[in-house]
Backbone:
């Protein structure tokens, strides 16, 4: 909006699920002076996007749901069928690696452009989230480290992310790896256990 003007941006929400989701986005829209469109299904989305084709950018807020919900596939199909939409996946940095891996598998697809790491302020380590992004070769577009909008949304800083991923747990933490435990882990990995 700052770069191209409020009339070059539009917001769409497909979230008719969470109570107050539309209202929340409308308030952001009002603050920015940007129109907010609510769409209910695939044809509604196609129609709205074609009306907005003179915009520089259209941001679509989708329904948040469990990666195990069968609606995930329906929502992905709706976005894929609506034209050239790039999806950004939000990865909660406080989740375990195996859960995040599940999330990526559920939300993967040809239109997945990258991810946003959220809640890095709450995460004890960034290792699981970064590991998943690297393993699945997903570009990190933004990093969120708090609840303030927009102050807590940042471009990723490679050195900071690697530092937070490799930093060991404090000595008094039950998750601190002792020298003997590190050796045992390496031996177990070598033995394929
Ligand atoms: N501490 C912290 N809180 C965050 C961060 N990002 C979002 N939150 C908070 O997490 C809560 C949920 O944020 P939303 O933006 O509603 O998340 P969402 O993914 O759109 O949620 P659904 O649409 O219901 O799936 C809010 O209270 C946010 O303020 C972050 O980086 N750090
Ligand atoms: Mg939401």
Residues:
């Amino acid at each position: 909006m700052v770069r191209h003007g409020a009339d070059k941006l539009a917001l769409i929400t497909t979230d008719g699920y969470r109570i107050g989701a539309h209202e929340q986005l409308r308030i952001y829209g009002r603050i920015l002076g940007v129109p907010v469109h609510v769409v209910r299904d695939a044809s509604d989305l196609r129609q709205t996007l074609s009306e907005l084709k003179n915009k520089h950018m259209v941001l679509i807020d989708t329904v948040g749901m469990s990666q195990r919900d069968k609606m995930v596939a329906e929502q992905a199909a709706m976005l894929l069928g609506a034209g050239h939409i790039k999806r950004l996946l939000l990865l909660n940095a406080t989740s375990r690696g195996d859960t995040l891996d599940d999330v990526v598998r559920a939300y993967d697809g040809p239109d997945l452009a990258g991810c946003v790491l959220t809640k890095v302020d709450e995460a004890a380590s960034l290792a699981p989230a970064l590991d998943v992004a690297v393993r699945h070769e997903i570009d990190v577009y933004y990093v969120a480290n708090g609840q303030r909008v927009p102050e807590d949304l940042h471009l990723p800083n490679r050195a900071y992310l690697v530092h937070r991923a490799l930093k060991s747990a404090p000595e008094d933490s039950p998750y601190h790896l002792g020298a003997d435990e590190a050796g045992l882990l390496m031996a177990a990995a070598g033995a394929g256990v």
In short: Residues 15, 21, 61, 64 surround magnesium ion (ligand 2) (CB under 6 Å). Residues 1-85 form a domain with the Rossmann fold fold (CATH 3.40.50.300).
